[in-house]
Amino acid sequence: MLKYYSKQFDVQITEAGKTFKKTFEVDKSVKTIYGVCILSNRDDLAYYRGSFRLEINKDEIYAEGYSTKKIMSSENVEPNKRCFYIGKIVVGNGLITFEYTDSEDGRTVFAPYIVSLSVDGERESEI
Questions:
Q1: Coil, helix or strand for 69?
Q2: What's the rounded Cα separation, in Å, for the pair 104 and 112?
Q3: Which of 18, 42, 69, 87 has the most CB atoms around its CB within 10 Å?
Q4: How far is CA 109 from CA 29, 33, 106, in A?
Q5: What pLDDT score was predicted for residue 86?
Q6: How far apart are the C-alpha atoms of 30 and 123, rounded to whole Å?
Q7: What is the residue range of 58's domain?
Q8: Res 127: pLDDT
Q9: The CATH number of the domain where 8 resides is what?
Q10: HSE of 28 in the Cβ direction (CA atoms, 13 Å)?
Q11: Taking Cα atoms as reference points, which of 28, 23, 21 lies closest to residue 5?
Q12: Structure confidence at residue 95 (pLDDT)
């Protein structure tokens, strides 16, 4: 029987105008991922300055330069509707590669911040 799975992966953004790439390993019990969203401790910086690329099992889900604006949500959205549905993707080798790019936008002043990739999916039950 499959159960709900949710995990947050953090990337420290420490320099303006740079790309930060991180590969995360998903627990072997996770079978599918079906939702993603981007969170930040500085929503304003992630929203205006950010773009990203996302790959699950070497399958590109979002191409380089995809705007974070498209998959961030606000506190006005119901908690169970905040993740963007990407279809049921079989996890396979369990690797998620996330590349986040900070770009100057003219509206914000850079300060170090954290960008989090949150994924929802299904895992095997322990029973």
A1: helix
A2: 13
A3: 42
A4: 41, 34, 8
A5: 93
A6: 4
A7: 2-124
A8: 63
A9: 2.60.120
A10: 1
A11: 28
A12: 94
Phi, psi (deg, nearest 5) at residue 62: -125, 130
| Sheet of 30-40, strand order | 2-13, 113-124, 30-40, 84-90
Q: How open is the CA angle 5-9-13, to the nearest 5 degrees?
A: 160
Cβ(53)–Cβ(60) below 8 Å: yes
Q: How many domains does the chain have?
A: 1
Distance between CA atoms of 126 and 26, rounded to whole angstroms?
16
pTM: 0.90
Q: Where are the alpha helices (DSSP H) in the chain?
A: 43-49
- Local mean pLDDT, 10-residue blocks, the chain (127 residues): 93 98 93 94 96 94 95 76 87 90 95 96 84
The pLDDT assigned to 13 comes to: 98
SS3 state of residue 79: helix
